Structure formats: structure tokens, C-alpha cells
Amino acid sequence: MKSPFKNPSSIPPFLLRCSPSPKHLCSQPQTPNPTATTSPEKTTSGSHFTCKQPFSASEIPIPLHLPSSSSKHTSLTQTHVLNTLLRHKNDPVSALKYFRSVEKKRGFAENIDAFCVLLHILVGSSQSHKRAQYLLNNKIGSDHSGPAPVVFLDHLVGTSKRFDFELNSRAFNYLLNSYVRVNRVDDAVDCFNGMLERDIVPWIPYMNILLTALVRRDLMDQARELYDKMVSIGVRGDCFTVYAMMRLFLKEGKPWEAEEFFREAKAQGIDLDAAVYCIAIHAACQKPDLNMAGELLREMEARGWIPSEGTYTTVIGAFVKQGTLEEALRLKDEMLSSGMPLNLVVATSLMKGYCKQGDVVRALDLFNKIKEDGLAPNKVTYTVLIDGCCRNRIVKKAYELYEEMKIMGIQPTVFNVNSLLGGFLEACLLNEASSLFDEAVESGIANVFTYNIFLYHFSKDGKVKEACSLWERMVANGLVPSNVSYNNMILAYCKVGNMDMAHTIFSGMVERGFKPNVITYSILIDGHFRKGDAERAMDLFDEMLGVQIAPSDFTFNIIINGLSIVGRTCEAKDMLKMFVQKGFIPVCLTYNSIINGYVKEGAMDSALRVYREMCESGVSPNVVTYTTLVNGFCKSNNMDLALKMHNEMKSKGLQLDVPAFSALIDGFCKKRDMVRARELFSELQQVGLSPNEIVYSSLVSGFRNVNNMEAAIDLHKKMINEGIPCHQHIYTTLIDGFLREGKLLLASDLYSQMLAKGIVPDIVTYTVLLNGLCNKGQLENAQKILEEMDREGVTPNVLIYNALIAGHFREGNIEESLRLHSEMLDRGLVPDDTTYDILVNGKAKGDNPSSGVSCA
Q: Residue ranges of region Disordered (predicted)?
């Protein structure tokens, strides 16, 4: 598009250039002959008349009064009307009255030349300009079958020359304006082009009116063409031109062009008004360029202009969308201080901003305030709040708003239902989710997205049966599964490790015309990695590349994590380098996968190197990173580095999570440093975290190992009081500790308590019991435990037989010891070195034949 600002020289608004010789469509009027009958002669081109023997206007006698209504109809010839109008050339009002008196008389066929002559007369006097405008508007609006715009223009030019009228461009501009005013935009464009062809320059205001009309009707190509023609004749336009063109750019979705146009107009010194600044702010918000929007607002303030309510609304919405809620709130206050009310759109935008920041309370406070102030929330307002509550896991409030919405007579949309459904499932409120889902299905608003939300819930948990049932229900209700539906079903089978069925679904998807996407392949690749089949996973990756599907960051992370899971962490590290060369940008998750792989392989030096590389590349470690490293150093008995990681984490403002505390506590418990373990346990509670079963288990084992059973049983009681489940491992540890101290009654009570809670003893529990009883000479009770194991179908191990054999050996029951040895062989158990030491060398007294038992 041509720039309007190449020639900044001022152009007079009424500029006219030399007219070409017009095409005469009618000859001049003839002198009346009182002795001859004058008869009009119609041409072949409609109602135009040809007349003979022209005369000058000065020779026409001027009557003292207008023809009366009794004049003969035969006198209303074209020549007579023209001559009469010309006699009133200097009296526009009389000319207009005469024209109106004769235009409907029988025998007078209204003719374009007469109309043009009258128009010239009217525009010749400033006092009759409005009459000229009205006459044209009425004529153009009522006579759509009249002459084409170019014909009208030719007659205006022709009559001005024939009857010695000054070629006043006002008549032409009024004609252009009338076409636009009566919504004949195509004719207006023809008129504009015709004026340019006749070297008549339209006035800028009327060009702006036509330009605005074209933009309003979305005739963008014609608007651009018109503007280019304006530029080509040296018309740079004014602020209204700038406004119209910026509206055009915005409607085309090109805010950058609107901004450039604004900047160029401003640089060329065009006097821009508040409206242009407001639309420039709208353009900045659409880009979005909020710095420019703020700059323009400040310029408006400096000029004493107050932005419109619509501008404030747009800017506030843009700042909210970009996450700059603080500035949005400031602008809201500025808007209110300017005397404008808080409208619903602004209020809804601010509620959305609060919800995005997780501050649903303030969003709801604003919601209640606007209701108190008389604003009625609409569907968008409720949708924002319902979605915000669901995303922030306040799903019960979301449901209250959903019900309130219905009470207010606002019909919820499927989007509202889908938001709530996702919220219920996220909060594990399956009954509520099922009820809402059934309601949506029965009402007919449930769509494939509704089903996919529920389908994903089942699939990610590997609930294949439920997923299949839902799939069948979706199809039965006439909905066509989408790519997402197929991906969810593939995910369901991958989660349970049924890769054959996952590939069957994949094949069915292709057969039905659906194209697998990067998510489809990524799910399958992940499934094979989790099954330990790295080769098949990498084959699928190659297949994906072969069908021209570009891997996403999600895919790259799956491959790196998958290789790390299967113990190929070095290969994962090499793949990372290759992916980076292809444009992949590693994130914290990527490095965490590799660090975790090295930790599992016990390669802590390599894990630490990856951690340092991560920091050097500008990726900030998160809680998972530090937890993994702390856990790895604890397992490798390097508590100094574990503590160093802990301290480094705190120095970066990160708070350890429960797994990280658990790893440290367990590490110190294994080192029997219960002082540090207690300190960390206290710190965990002080930062507002709740210790879980794993933390308690480590502490109980630690206190058992240092023979502090009083502290161990206190922790057990604390667990029960806080409602934390006490699993079989903790009971076994406590029983073992009390048996070591010879407190058989306490051990027995704990065992009974464990059984009463429905906790089934495992082989470790039985081994601890038998070992403890045998060491204390309780061989009869030990035998009862052995019989209980038989009843429960638990096969004794070598450690149990060693404890029983050693116990009887100590009591001198050699025969029973040998019988137990034979029973042991009959059960298919292979005696170990401890067994033979007891039987052959008599090493029973003072040692612990079951010292290999560990319940820690």
C-alpha cells in the first residue's frame, strides 16, 4: 500500500483541476417561437431531450412571478423548465419552489439536466447548501433506477459548461456523500472513481466517509484501493483518515500495520485526536505491546485526554492476559477516578486475573461486590469463576456457582460442564463427577471432549475396563471418537503394560482414517520403555521420524527418561546432546531424569556432574533435583554431601519436601545419628509439612537400632493419634526391638494389635518372632508360630529353621534339632553355613543364628 505521507505539502480541500471537454448528452435550450408549436424530441437513450437553436441565458426574459398551477401542461417541456430555472439562477429558493411545483405535473417528465441545473443553482449560494444536500439525498435514496453515477457526473459537468455555471466541486462531493448516506456504496465508489477521472478531487471529509463505510462493511480490498488512489493524487488525509485505516488493519488482524501507520502519521505532524490514540492503544494491546499501550496512555494524560471506557476495558483485559494484574488494577482505579463505572467486562477480566494467580478468594469477593452494585453476572463471568475454582481445586464452590448460574436463568455450556468434570476428577470426587457426567449426557450437551476428560481419568490410572465401557457408551450415543480418544485408550493399555492391545488400538485408529500424531507415538514409546523394551521404543521413534512427524519436547523427555529408567543413562546423556543440536532446549525435568538414572546406578559422581552442568546452562534445579541427589548421597552413605545439597537448596529459597526430609532422616537413622534425625524431624514439622509413614518407619527403625524402644513406641503412638497408617514393617520393627530386650509381653501385644487391624504378617515378621522367641527359650511359643505359618500357607525359610535348630540345640534337644534339619530338607530348603555350624561345631551358645534377619 502506498504511504500517505510521502508528500507532506498541504493540499487545499476544494482543489479542482482543469476539466476535460465533457461529453454532451443534451444540447442547449432553444428560443421559444410563439407562432410555432414546439414539441420535445426523445432520444434513444431514455428520457433525455434534444432541442434546436440554442440561445444564451441572458436573452431569456425573467418573469415577474412563477407559472401558476393553471399553466398548460404542454408548456412543461424540457426547454421551458430549463429556461424557467435559469431565470431564477440567482434566486435558489424560487428555483427550488418552481422545480417542486412542476416535477409531479402531468406531462412533465423529470429530466436529469433540469435536476443538474437546479443543483448548480443551489450550490452557488451558501444559504441553499443544505437544500442541495437534502435534494440529492432524497433523489439518490428514492430513485435507484436513475442514471449511473458516471452519467450523473457527465451531466453535472455538461450543464455547468452549457449554462455558464462555475464548476463548483460542492455538487460533486454532495453527490458522493449522498450515495454513501443511502447505503449505495458501490455507486459511491463509482462516483469517487468518476470524479478522479474528470480531475475533480473529492473533499477529504467525504473521502473519509466513503472509506469508513467500506471498512464498516468489511470491503477491505476496495478500501485499500480507495486509499491508494487518495495517496496517488497527493491527498495525505487527516486524523479521520488515519482512524479509518487503522480500523481496517485491526479488522484484518494486522495490529503491527496499524501501529506503523500511526507512528508514520504522528511523525509527519498530522493532528491526531483522542480517538486515534485510543485505536492505537487497541492495536498495541492486540500485538500485544503493553509498553506501547502504557506509553500512549501517558501521552493522552499529558494532553489532557481521558481514554474512553472501551479503551480502558481493552487495556485492562490485555494486562490481565499478560499476567500483569497489578497494572490492570491500577488502570481500573484510574478508570473509576475518571468518573467511569466498573463495567462487567472489566470486572470479569480482573476476576480472571485473580484466578490465574490462584487468588480465588479475591475473585469471589469482586464477584459479590458487583452483584451488590447491581451488575448482573453473565455467562462469561460464571465461566471464568467456575474454571478458576476448578483449576485451584475449589471444586465445591465451582459447583455452587454452576447451580447459581442455572437459578439465574443462564444455561450452562458444555465448557462449564467440562471444567467441573475435570475439577471433580482432579479432587477424586468420582461420585460427583459421575453424576454430572450423566446429567450432561441426558441433557444432550456432552460432547467428545466431555467423554475424553473422563476417558483420560480412567486411562492414566490404567483402568482399562472402565475406559472400554465409557468408549462403548460414547459410540452408542452417536459421538465419533477423536484422536484424543484413541490416544487415551492407547495410554490405558500402556499403563497396564499390555502393549499388544495398545498397538491393536493404534492399528484401528489408522484403519478408521485417523492420523496418529506425536502424542500417539510418544505414549507408545513411553509404554515400551516402562516395560523395559528400549529397543522397541527406539524403533517406534525411528518410525515416527519416517512418517514425517516431528518429535516434541515431550517426546525427547520421554526418550531421555526411558533410557535412564532402563539403566542406559550414559546413552540418555548422549541422546540429550544430539537432541540439543536439533533445537531441543532441556528443562529441569530433562536433567532430573538423567540425574535419577545415575543415582539408581550408584554413579553419584556422574549425577553430580549433570547437576553442575544443569546449573551452568541456566536451568534452576527444583525440589525433585535436590531430593534425588540427597537420597542418592544418603544411600551411598555420604551424609556430608547430602547435607550440603540440603543447605544449598535452602540457600536458593527452596523448601525440602517430605521425600527429601525422609531421605535425610533415613540416612542419619542408618548411621545411628538419632540426634540429627530428630532435628530434621522437628524441622519438617516446623515448615508445615506432615511426616508420612515412611518417615516414621525410618525413625522407629533408627531408635530400635540404638535400643531406645521408649522413643520408638512413642512414635508409634503419635502415628496412631494422627491417623497415619501403621504398616506391617513398623509393627515388625517394634516387635523385634521388644523381643531383643526380652519384653515378650509387649511384643505379643503388638503382634495381636497387628492381627486385629487385619495386617497379615509376612516372612520377615515370622522370622523376627521365631528368632526372638527362640533366643529367649520360648520354644513352645515358637513352635506355635511355625504351625501358624503352615496354616497361613507361608513357607518357613532357612533363617527360621536355623533359629529353631539353635534354640533346641541350646536346650540340649539334639534329637529335635536333627528332626527340624530333616524337615527343612524335606521342604526343599538348602541349609547354609550357619546351619552346619550349629549342628557340626555346636556354635549355638552366645551367638545369634538369625543375625541376618533385617526388618529395617
A: 23-48
Cell digits of residue 719: 502415628
113 and 78 in contact (C-beta within 8 Å)?
Answer: yes
Mean pLDDT of each 10-residue bin along the chain, 856 residues long: 41 34 33 32 32 33 36 61 91 92 62 90 93 92 83 93 91 95 94 94 95 95 94 90 95 94 91 93 91 91 91 94 92 93 95 94 95 94 95 93 94 94 92 93 92 94 94 93 95 96 95 94 96 94 94 94 94 93 92 95 94 93 90 88 87 82 90 92 89 92 93 92 88 90 88 88 87 85 85 85 85 84 85 80 49 48
Cα gap 637→624, rounded to integer Å: 20
What are φ and ψ of residue 50, in 5° steps? -110, 140
**Helices then strands, each counted (H, E), the chain:** 44, 2
Residue written as grid cell 539353635? 806
Q: Which sign does the torsion angle of CA 361, 365, 370, 374 carry?
A: positive
> What distance, in Å, lies between the first and last C-alpha atoms of the chain?
80
- Alpha-helical (H) ranges within 16-168 are 78-87, 92-102, 112-123, 129-142, 149-162
Dihedral sign for Cα 412, 416, 418, 420, please.
Answer: negative
**For residue 15, which phi and psi values (nearest 5 degrees)?**
-55, 130
- Cα–Cα distances in angstroms (integers) from residue 545 to residues 521, 548, 549, in the given order: 10, 5, 5
Write out the three cell numbers for 743.
519384653
Model-wide pTM > 0.70: no
Look-up of cell digits 473509576: 336
Tell me the three cell numbers of residue 642: 547430602
